[in-house]
Write a structure and sequence with these properties.
This protein is 25% helix and 22% strand.
Length: 106
C-alpha cells in the first residue's frame, strides 16, 4: 500500500466525522493537492477540527507541514440564477431610463 492521505472534518460536538477520499501521495498528477468536498455536510458553521489522516503498508515517520491553505466557496446554481436575474433587471432599467431620456429631449 503506497503512502495515502485524506482530509477530514469533525463538526458539531465532535461526534460528526466526515472523511474525504484517499489519495496516493507522490503518485497523483497533482502531487501536493488533496481535497474534501463539503457539499452535503449539514453543520459547516460548527467545525471543530480539520485534519489529515495517513495510511501506508510501511512504517511512516516524518513531519507534515501544511501551508497555503485555501478555502473556496462555490456558489450553488440558484445563487447564480438570482445574480443573473438581478444583473438583467439592472440592465433593463438602464435601457428604459436611456429610452425615456431620449424621448424627453427637445
Amino acid at each position: 500500500l503506497p503512502l495515502q492521505a485524506r482530509l477530514y472534518l469533525i463538526t458539531g460536538s465532535g461526534s460528526n466525522y466526515y472523511p474525504g477520499e484517499w489519495f496516493n501521495l507522490f503518485r497523483e498528477p497533482a502531487l501536493n493537492l488533496i481535497s474534501l468536498s463539503a457539499s452535503g455536510i449539514p453543520d459547516l458553521n460548527n467545525i471543530q477540527a480539520i485534519g489529515i489522516a495517513f495510511r501506508s503498508s510501511v512504517d511512516f515517520r516524518g513531519k507534515v507541514k501544511i501551508d497555503n491553505v485555501r478555502v473556496h466557496v462555490i456558489p450553488e446554481p440558484a445563487t447564480l440564477v438570482l445574480l443573473g436575474i438581478g444583473l438583467g433587471a439592472l440592465a433593463g432599467a438602464r435601457r428604459l431610463r436611456k429610452k425615456t431620456a431620449s424621448k424627453n429631449l427637445p
